[in-house]
Amino acid sequence: MRSIHPIKESLERVHLGDMHSYNGLTMWPIFGPDITGLDYKLLNDACDQDELQISENEIATVSEIHVKNLGDLPVFGLDGEQLVGAKQNRVLNLSVLFPEKTDILVPVSCVERGRWSGRDNFRV
Q1: Domain range spanning residue 118?
Q2: Which residues of 55-91 are buried (b: 16+ CB within 10 A; e: fewer)?
Q3: How far apart (Å, rounded) are the C-alpha atoms in residues 93 and 79?
Q4: The domain that contains 102 carries what CATH number?
Q5: Residue ranges of the ARG and Rhodanese-Phosphatase-superfamily-associated domain (predicted)?
Q6: Per-residue pLDDT for 123 more than 70?
Q7: How are strands ordered across the β-sheet holding 41-42?
Q8: 3-state SS of 41-67?
């Protein structure tokens, strides 16, 4: 039977590591039990291996791009990751796991003012 408190139970299994500070930024690593069976690639690795194609939508808009995962593994894109090129540089609006062998539209934000020209493809 599934728990009705999966988030609470997951948080109870993690612990904070030692604090690290650098130039006014303070972070604590979060550690938890190993998760097995979760295989995925990072966005830049999948692009480097030509397993992920990122392009303008057929009807190009600032707020959405087309992502095609050609690979056999899901691909993880981190919220805020920059996509350079195409008609305008963008960043991902959310963290997303692109399923293997899929085509999807992804919400993005513009990080460049004024340019709306160039090729149709992005690079990471």
Answers
A1: 41-123
A2: bbeeeeeeeebbbebebebbbbbeeebebebbbbbbe
A3: 6
A4: 2.60.40
A5: 14-121
A6: no
A7: 41-42, 75-77, 96-98
A8: EEHHHHHHCCCEEEEEEEEEECCEEEE
Cβ atoms of 45 and 73 within 8 Å: the answer is: no
How many whole angstroms separate alpha carbon 80 and alpha carbon 9?
A: 28
- Classify residue 62: in a domain, yes or no: yes
pLDDT-derived band at 117 (thresholds 50, 70, 90) equals low
Distance CA 70, CA 51 (A): 5
pLDDT exceeds cutoff 90 at 119: no
The C-alpha atoms of residue 74 and residue 98 are separated, in whole angstroms, by 5
Within-domain flag for 20:
no
